[in-house]
Write a structure and sequence with these properties.
CATH topology: Globin-like
CATH superfamily: Globins
Largest sheet: none
Helix content: 55-70%
Order of helices and strands: HHHHHHHH
Number of helices: 8
Number of domains: 1
Bound molecules: protoporphyrin IX containing FE
Radius of gyration: 17 Å
């Protein structure tokens, strides 16, 4: 029983840790803080809507709300002083039939956008590393 409780509390600590924003704000700073994230998300969204691979998915989306949510999410995962209050990733993407190729297209477009914003390669990779595991919730079709 004791062993079970220790295992359970370790598992819960791991879960809490995974869901907490990183305490280190260095990535948030490297992304240009809140103003840099607003510029990045503006440019990224413009590219998503102009790209034939991703635009169709956004035809029903309220773009100002989407941008606001994405800024908060990027701010939180990069260690900034924000709390993402949007839908969880599974619920947000549930009816969109997103395949692996759609996910890869979005990542490629985000990289182009980060390049265009002059974000350092190391910071780009750190942000992508925070987002990559979300593929499990976002991709719903083969
Ligand atoms: C790591 C990858 C991704 C992240 C971090 C992400 C993040 C987000 C966030 C934060 C929202 C807002 C949720 C809300 O409104 O509460 C959202 C919504 C949305 N995402 Fe993603 N997303 C990802 C992948 C994708 C992909 C691959 C597509 C399709 C190509 C996509 C299409 C959409 C659309 C269309 C919405 C708006 C849904 C609606 O209108 O309610 N996302 N996403």
């Amino acid at each position: 029983m004791k062993k079970f409780l220790i295992t359970l509390s370790l598992a819960l600590c791991g879960l809490a840790h995974a869901q907490m924003a990183p305490a280190d704000p260095s990535l948030f700073k490297a992304l240009g803080e809140k103003a840099g994230l607003v510029r990045l998300v503006d440019d990224f969204t413009t590219r998503l809507l102009a790209d034939g691979r991703t635009a169709p998915q956004f035809k029903e989306t309220k773009i100002p709300h989407f941008k606001e949510m994405l800024v908060d999410q990027f701010c939180q995962v990069s260690g900034g002083p924000c709390a993402y209050k949007g839908a969880d990733m599974k619920a947000a993407h549930a009816n969109l039939d997103i395949a692996k190729r759609d996910f890869n297209a979005l990542v490629e477009i985000l990289q182009q956008s980060m390049d265009a914003q002059g974000i350092a390669f190391g910071a780009q990779n750190r942000l992508l590393a925070q987002l990559a595991p979300m593929h499990r919730e976002v991709i719903t079709v083969k």
